[in-house]
Design goal:
Blueprint (H helix, E strand, L loop, with lengths): L4 H21 L6 E3 L5 E3 H17 L4 E4 L3 E3 L5 E9 L1 H6 L5 E8 L2 E9 L4 E6 L4 E3 L2 E3 L11 E3 L6 H18 L2 E3 L4 H9 L5 E5 L3 H13 L3 E3 L12 E5 L4 H9 L1
Parallel strand pairs: 3-5, 11-12, 11-13
Antiparallel strand pairs: 1-2, 3-4, 5-6, 6-7, 7-8, 8-9, 9-10, 13-15, 14-15
Helix pairs in contact: 1-2, 5-6
Bound molecules: D-MYO-inositol-1-phosphate and calcium ion (2 copies).
């Protein structure tokens, strides 16, 4: 008997419904609000979040929720759903079709379930702790890359990049020179799933929030990947930086970033 079957069903239904809603609204964004100079929120972020929260309230009324736009909603259980209703808002607002819904379940500080749905490509990534990672029901695994020089990497830039631009671009320069290339596609959740599926060999990023990485973290670990902070400390989605990669290149990534 698989663990968390009911929760998986709820998360799947919520992510697919929210993803379908995003797909419908894609290309027709009416309202773009600003949470910061470049940090956007559209009506689609809010509508997708509303849909997910309504489903969770019916299926799991006692659970806590931490969701990007709604914030922390206290429940009475030891379980927390961590939600990014639209990861890749800037892409979405500009009509660049690379975005996803991300939903994770945390129980007593452990991520036990994660789903990431890219509705545009109809790719559904999922994992439960101890049960492997899957893309559209097929098992996935991180790549076999052994060296940074043979690796395709990804990163992202924080919204407050202005304050940290020197370090961020120094890292970008070093990693670009050390690898086969660095992609910056604009969805940390999808980047993590691409590492899990072996499409990317590694990613690093700083300035992320729990909802960006919670689901991706379970999926990367269950696909055989390695997760730490950029300083090689233990990763949790509450830490602000991440390295997610195939294990053999981890040391080289840490050294390149911190050297
Ligand atoms: C953002 C994306 C982006 C990353 C940013 C995130 P949002 O999430 O994941 O790839 O570089 O740091 O904030 O705002 O689109 O949900
Ligand atoms: Ca996000
Ligand atoms: Ca978001």
């Amino acid at each position: 008997m698989n663990m968390f079957e009911k929760e998986r069903e709820t998360a799947t239904r919520a992510a697919r419904s929210a993803g379908d809603l995003l797909k419908q609204k894609f290309g027709n964004v009416q309202h773009i609000g600003k949470k910061g100079e470049t940090d956007l929120v559209t009506e689609a972020d809010l509508a997708a979040e509303k849909l997910i929260l309504e489903m969770l309230r019916i299926d799991c009324p006692k659970d806590n929720i931490l969701s990007e736009e709604a914030g922390a909603l206290a429940g009475s259980s030891a379980r927390t759903w961590i939600i990014d209703p639209l990861d890749g808002t800037t892409n979405f607002a500009h009509g660049f079709p690379f975005f996803a819904v991300s939903i994770a379940l945390e129980i007593e500080k452990e991520m036990v379930l994660g789903v990431v749905y890219n509705p545009f490509m109809e790719e559904f990534f999922e994992a439960r702790k101890g049960e492997g990672a899957f893309l559209n029901h097929q098992p996935i695994h991180v790549s076999h890359a052994g060296h940074l020089k043979e690796s395709l990497l990804a990163t992202g830039f924080p919204y407050d990049i202005e304050q940290k631009s020197h370090r961020i671009f120094e890292w970008h320069k070093r990693m670009t020179i050390a690898s086969r290339g660095v992609r910056r596609a604009g969805s940390a959740a999808i980047d993590m799933c691409y590492v899990a599926a072996g499409r990317l060999d590694g990613l690093w990023e700083e300035g992320l929030k729990p909802w960006d990485t919670a689901a991706g973290a379970v999926i990367v670990l269950e696909a055989g990947g390695r997760l730490t902070t950029c300083e090689d400390e233990m990763f949790t989605p509450y830490r602000k930086s991440v390295i997610a990669c195939t294990p053999l290149i981890h040391k080289e990534m840490v050294n390149a970033l911190n050297g």
